[in-house]
Specification:
single chain, 220 residues, alpha+beta, CBS-domain, 2 domains, 3-stranded mixed sheet, 26% strand
Amino acid sequence: MLVQELISDEIPFLTIKDNCQQVSTWMDEFKMTHLPIIDEGKYLGLISESAILDIDNWDDTIGDHTRSIEPFGVHAGDHVFEAVKILGSQKLSCIGVRDDKDTFLGSISLTKIVEVIGELSLISDTGGIIMVEINEVDYSMSQIAQIVESNGAKLLGSYITSAPQTDRIRVTVKLNKQDVSDVIQTFERYDYQIFGSFHISESSDNLEDRFNNLINFLNI
């Protein structure tokens, strides 16, 4: 998914002629801690709430404090993950979008990004989750996929993180079935360390059924 597919005109933009009082009012009204700044249609960056609060005279315009403008932005052709990275690392409430000529096209809010991520199959679809750890030199996504598929399951998504203070990596995979006990056993046979899983096993369901049957028998 590209950034241009998520552009919204619901977030107000500011110009360098707007004064700090106007900026504060709009931030409060739209519940934003950042707003995009443009000058004659060109995207300059973002102004933050904290930068505005540091200005003594709120009659000053943004143009009087251009050094406070943060040059964060994304291009329309960027992948949405680029916007996610900047929003997260810089703790932004929105980010401006520009074309190759720096023309301002609109903004993307953090709320919209969260909404989009929530719709990904990795998040929204029902299924079990397995977290495995392995030496970085031994990592092979094709092998992980083969292990999953050899047990009649499919990968809905995955992501990788580094294990703290080691040369090992952690891979989290989400599968298209709830009981992943067989997949976990296969990972262990291939020397993957399982450091977490979230699933519903058939054995758990059977145990619950037996318990319910016992209760029903005792109530007779």
